[in-house]
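Try this one yourself first.
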């Protein structure tokens, strides 16, 4: 079904009886060419690009809950490509370019809004770090713009410039960064994949892998066994648990990350703003709520809810840069389980088991990666070679000493 203004008008005038469900509810078939485990953003995007770019449609996406029930529907919706290292920046810039054409591509309104992202800095060394990052971004074809404190005073007068404990010395803008309606991304990719013949099977948990003589030939699920030539895992926060069923131990820990939304307010924030002297970031949703978050809870967990010390820490961060936030009332707080890798960068790779592939380690930044991750994973599955923009996202990079340590903080997942 093609969405258009004419279709909306016609349906509006005829009682909205012609809309069809956006995806089917098929039963699992006994066998597929590819079974994707996890109907989050990355699993659905992989299925979509497998069908659209590589013509591979005998594919199932199996999901233990409902489509989009994981982090794709829990994140704070920020997209950007302000990374620095060669192993990351071209990949994230590719993702941003895909976001820019996504809605036309899958004919679904995902509310892609390039309202800008600003990283504040509060010291001279921090400014030097951001200048270096900006240069790396520009070299990779991204946009970056340095703003002085005076520029920011004019553009964002509500920030605390005068009484702040951490004075704002300026910021790094990426004007093409912004936000996207996260659920609509899952729905749009699901619709695009389903319409090309992919089976999306909800309430179907993968409980084991059929592995014999080093070859994976399918999965065991709560709805029976499914055979497959290739099995592609992308279960984000459940990566450790699911891959343990294949006997693999990953360089990944699961941690909780919380997010917050206030009551709806009049337009206040033009774009996304991040605090440079603590962990706090904020944007305003199209409904008016201030959406913000901060650091991980700091202990391993599979619970999708967090604890109060981080609530306090995040609110302190907010008060430190924009005290007016103290007057807003918080409506909801929620949590998601993050697959934190040991260098803060992801994996899109084959495993040592033939036919078993892995995508994960997205830490708390995988939403912005969704289209590029789908494209690169689909490339790997269809051609059995990594996409040129994902050649470094390998599982053995720790063994080879080729980590992609974006923040230079090493094996400390709580710092990424
Ligand atoms: C509070 C919060 C804020 C965030 N903010 C941002 C942000 O602003 N920008 C950004 O880029 N990123 C952000 N992220 C990170 C981002 O949401 C994740 O990195 C990304 O969504 C992970 O990929 P996914 O969408 O495929 O994961 P998910 O949506 O979690 O998909 C994984 C799916 O696998 C399913 N699954 C698990 N086990 C099994 C099994 N055994 N069988 C079948 N299915 C299974 C799960 O049910 C789930 O649906 C945030 C995350 C959180 C929690």
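Now uncover the answer:
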């Amino acid at each position: 079904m093609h969405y258009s203004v004419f279709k909306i008008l016609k349906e509006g005038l005829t009682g909205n009886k012609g809309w069809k469900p956006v995806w089917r509810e098929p039963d699992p078939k006994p066998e597929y060419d590819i079974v994707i485990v996890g109907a989050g953003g990355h699993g659905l995007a992989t299925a979509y690009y497998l069908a659209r770019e590589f013509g591979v449609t005998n594919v199932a996406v199996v999901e233990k809950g409902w489509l989009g029930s994981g982090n794709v529907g829990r994140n704070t919706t920020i997209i950007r490509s302000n990374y620095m290292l060669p192993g990351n920046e071209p990949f994230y810039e590719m993702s941003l370019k895909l976001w820019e054409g996504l809605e036309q591509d899958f004919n679904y309104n995902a509310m892609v809004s390039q309202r800008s992202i600003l990283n504040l800095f509060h010291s001279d060394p921090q400014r030097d770090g951001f200048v270096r990052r900006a240069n790396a971004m520009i070299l990779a074809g991204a946009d970056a713009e340095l703003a002085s404190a005076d520029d920011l005073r004019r553009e964002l007068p509500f920030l605390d410039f005068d009484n702040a404990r951490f004075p704002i010395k300026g910021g790094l803008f990426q004007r093409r960064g912004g936000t996207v309606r996260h659920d609509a991304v899952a729905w749009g990719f699901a619709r695009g994949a389903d319409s090309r013949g992919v089976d999306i099977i909800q309430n179907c948990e993968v409980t084991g892998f059929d592995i014999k003589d080093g070859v994976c030939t399918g999965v065991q699920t709560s709805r029976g066994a499914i055979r497959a030539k290739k099995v592609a895992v992308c279960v984000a926060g459940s990566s450790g648990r699911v891959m343990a069923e294949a006997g693999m131990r990953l360089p990944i820990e699961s941690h909780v990350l919380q997010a917050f939304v206030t009551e709806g307010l009049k337009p206040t924030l033009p774009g996304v703003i991040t605090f440079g002297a603590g962990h706090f970031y904020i944007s305003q949703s199209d409904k008016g709520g201030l959406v913000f978050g901060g650091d991980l809870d700091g202990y391993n967990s599979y619970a999708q809810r967090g604890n109060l010390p981080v609530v306090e820490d995040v609110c302190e961060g907010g008060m430190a840069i924009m005290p007016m936030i103290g007057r807003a009332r918080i409506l909801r707080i929620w949590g998601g389980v993050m697959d934190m890798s040991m260098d803060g960068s992801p994996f899109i790779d084959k495993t040592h088991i033939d036919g078993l592939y892995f995508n994960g380690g997205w830490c708390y930044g995988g939403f912005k990666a969704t289209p590029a991750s789908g494209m690169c994973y689909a490339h790997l599955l269809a051609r059995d070679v990594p996409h040129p923009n994902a050649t470094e996202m390998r599982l053995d990079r720790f063994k080879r000493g080729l980590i992609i340590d974006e923040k230079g903080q090493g094996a400390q997942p709580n710092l990424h």
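Discussion: Residues 37-43, 62-65, 69-72, 74-78, 205-206, 234-238, 242, 257-259, 293, 336, 362, 364-368 surround flavin-adenine dinucleotide (CB under 6 Å). The chain has a mean pLDDT of 95.
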